[in-house]
Amino acid sequence: MHTREEKMEAFGRLLDVMDRLREECPWDRKQTNESLRPNTIEETYELCEAIIRDDQREICKELGDVLLHVVFYGRIGEEKGQFDIADVCNKLCDKLIFRHPHVYGEAVAKDAEAVLESWEQIKLKEKDGNKTVLSGVPAALPSLIKAYRIQDKARNVGFDWEDRGDVWAKVREELDELQAELEKDDRQHSTEELGDFLFSVINAARLYKLNPDNALEMTNQKFIRRFNYIEQHSIRAGRPFTEMTLDEMDQLWNEAKEEEERI
After folding, report:
1. Contact, 221 vs 55, CB < 8 A?
2. Please, what is the angle between helix 112-125 and helix 143-156, to 10°?
């Protein structure tokens, strides 16, 4: 691992590279906050994918790509005379210090749960901070992640189940209501009840300290691997999917599952 001096030197090198690219590269010189935004979203998702796979080499690479965007926005802000990367770092440090009075002040926090309990109240006290508890949840978040964050923020101010086991009655209640609307073939109410059911399942995951977004992505990847196994078998056999029976596909699915379990 590198020393602090080496880390600071590496960050300075990155700033030097960014400055030169911005001045001498036609593509980099042309970029704006708006043009970079889609790339930033893509790079963030690529980092998340590497984290899900626990691929340390890719995590390191994708962190670099995300850091490039942070430095890029800082450089654009500097050109506009609005802020620079030092302002970004200092504002972050000030915020972290203010939000950790148990480290930088006299407050006491025995564990992570105690820290989270005071987190929302601290943010409400900040200058230019959140005006309401839920205002800090970005509107553009994907719905599954947004639901988790809404529930988590409500929990931080005491609005939560006293006994996490009680949540299962709510999950069953929402499932029953969804099934009832589906049997009526009422699309509008079925959609509403599906949302309520998913929200309750996400709530249960949160109460049991499971991340539903990570869990769903792991299942997505598992499905892709097993479905690809079926597809590759059909290609080798020279038989298109349309000629395979469901039983044949199920058998191959189970083969893929058994193969994964052996690894």
Report:
1. no
2. 90
